[in-house]
Specification:
The protein has about 240 residues and is an alpha/beta fold. It is about 35% helix and about 15% strand. It has nine helices and eight strands. Strands 3-4-5-2-6-7-1-8 form an eight-stranded mixed beta sheet. Helix 1 crosses helix 2 (about 45-60). The model has no long low-confidence stretch (mean pLDDT about 95).
């Protein structure tokens, strides 16, 4: 009965739908524009949208092999961590009516088709796999798409971006801005044509709840340097 509890439908904001459309278009594109770089303010829900695209593709596409990378193992798949990528995907699948999942993944059984950081569609053999950014990350088999979440905070991010090129035509780097672990995210955002990926920018003011008063409150809670980086997307 508590309106603030339980699972609510994912109803995207317009800027999130813009990302969805741009990502689907990139999936149909070869070359540098098939890669997507998302630079964002915090609390914009872009990682959640990327997970929704991966779970949707896992269900409905004839062939889809998705790989999800994050900077730490517990941000890939941890049962009690809502920030982990597979926690988001599992919630999105479990919250649907059972007939929807059974229609697109006939015979799916959580006991057999889900393991730690591994999700298989028994009908289509579509598969989602997750890994942290260890020394061999990104060097596995071919994938339809590879998600690199919090890319600016990945150590050796430049090497990861290069390593995943051979594995997929579609790399997705999502992050708030930072130079703490190197300039790899900055370099992607500011690359020149024709090597430049599809770069999407999502500043805080696109969110309908994050208006000027919200920014002032954030400035009271955080240092100016923190706000410049996390909110105003200033490298």
């Amino acid at each position: 009965d508590d309106p603030m509890s339980g699972v609510i439908p994912l109803v995207p904001y317009p800027f999130q739908l813009y990302y969805w459309d741009a990502q689907i278009r990139a999936f149909r594109t070869r070359g540098p524009k098939g890669d997507v770089v998302v630079v964002k303010s915090r609390q914009m829900g872009m990682s959640n949208m990327a997970c929704a695209i991966f779970s949707h593709s896992w269900m409905v596409r004839k062939t889809f092999q998705g790989r999800l990378l994050s900077r730490k193992e517990d941000l890939v798949d941890e049962s009690n961590n809502p920030d982990s990528l597979f926690w988001k995907i599992k919630l999105q699948l479990q919250a649907q009516p059972k007939w929807v999942l059974q229609h697109f993944a006939p015979g799916f059984d959580w006991r057999y088709d889900y393991m730690l950081a591994s999700l298989t569609n028994p009908a289509s053999k579509n598969h989602l796999a997750g890994e942290s950014t260890n020394a061999t990350a990104g060097r596995g088999g071919a994938a339809s798409a590879v998600l690199l979440d919090e890319f600016a905070f990945m150590r050796g991010g430049g090497g990861l971006w290069t390593a995943t090129r051979a594995a997929t035509r579609h790399r997705i780097a999502i992050s708030t801005v930072s130079l703490e672990y190197g300039p790899h995210f900055y370099d992607l955002v500011n690359a020149e044509e024709p090597e430049r990926a599809t770069v999407l920018s999502f500043p805080y003011y696109l969110h309908p709840f994050q208006v000027e008063n919200w920014l002032e409150l954030e400035r009271e809670r955080e240092s100016e340097a923190g706000n410049q980086q996390e909110v105003l997307m200033n490298f």
